[in-house]
Amino acid sequence: MSKIVLDDGSQIFYQWWGKTAIDSERPVIVLLHEGLGCTAMWREFPEALFVATGLPVLSYDRLGYGRSSASRYGFKMDYIRHEAEVLLPQVLSKLEVENDIILFGHSDGATIALAASASMDKKPVAVIAEAPHVIIEEVTFQGLNQTRSLMGKGDTLFKLSRYHGQRTADLVYDWLDCWLSGEMHKWQMDDLLKKIDVPVLFIQGDEDHFGSVAQYDHLKKLLKLSPDLLWMEDCGHIPHLQKSGEVIKGFKLFMAREGLILP
């Protein structure tokens, strides 16, 4: 099991696909998982992404998730910024990733990717933001409440425990409590969005129960460069699994337009 040790002694699990393909000329794709996800929950997508693009792919479990150590920071109102400004740069440094990077995030991970592109000393060459939350919509709260209800029924928590172990319930309810707290009604990241000056591909499913096209509209108003939109019909919150081939095709076309990979 591959792990690195952070400055505070915490351990981060990570996994490479195509590490032997790393050279100084090609960027590395860094995957940032969703709010209740981890590296394993990307399933076959990282391998498919590497095979389709020839670019090395790196994923890691954030603290408190999957096979990484417990988080000492927890889910505070600013945890997105903490992940983007403190932990992501440290992970890349510990792994000695010196190449240009493409941040590919899903849900929470997409929001972290956007925040990181505004704050990192060495900015990513591009951001793929799949179902990010840049504003809090009514549909967002509805989706979170549906998730809370779902966790109390059937075997959903048990299925998640295959990935997060004995801390699954604490992870799920701490995350939900954070987003459903009255304080998070005031959450925003406009100050960071206004600083982003790298190409962004926004991916959204039309049946996403956590967000709508309003997320893209808000992003478009604030970014220095107009983001590309990959709108997925008949698709929910996880396009990279529900429409994997279309996501990879859209990713390649976007990267080719930006001159980052061959068409």
Kindly summarize this structure in a few lines.
The chain is of the alpha/beta class and 263 residues long.
Structure write-up:
The chain has 263 residues and is an alpha/beta fold. It has a single domain, classed as Alpha/Beta hydrolase fold, catalytic domain (Rossmann fold, 3-Layer(aba) Sandwich), CATH 3.40.50. It is built from 10 helices and 8 strands. Strands 1-2-4-3-5-6-7-8 form an 8-stranded mixed beta sheet, with helices on both faces. A hairpin with a 5-residue loop joins strand 1 and strand 2. Helix 2 crosses helix 3. It is globular, with a radius of gyration of 17 Å. It starts with a strand and ends in a 6-residue tail after the last helix. The mean pLDDT is 94.
Q: What's the end-to-end separation, in Å?
A: 35 Å
CATH class: Alpha Beta
Structural class: alpha/beta
- Gyration radius over CA: 17 Å
- Contiguous low-pLDDT stretches (5 residues minimum) are none
DSSP helix fraction: 25-40%
Anisotropy-based shape: globular
Strand order of the largest sheet: 1-2-4-3-5-6-7-8
CATH superfamily: Alpha/Beta hydrolase fold, catalytic domain
Could you describe the largest sheet, including whether it forms a barrel?
8 strands, mixed
Q: Please provide the ordered H/E string of secondary-structure elements.
A: EEEHEHEHEHHHHEHEHH
What would CATH call the architecture? 3-Layer(aba) Sandwich
* β-sheet strand percentage: 15-25%
Q: What is the number of E strands? A: 8
| Number of individual domains | 1
What is the CATH topology classification name?
Rossmann fold
H/I helix tally:
10
Average pLDDT level: 94
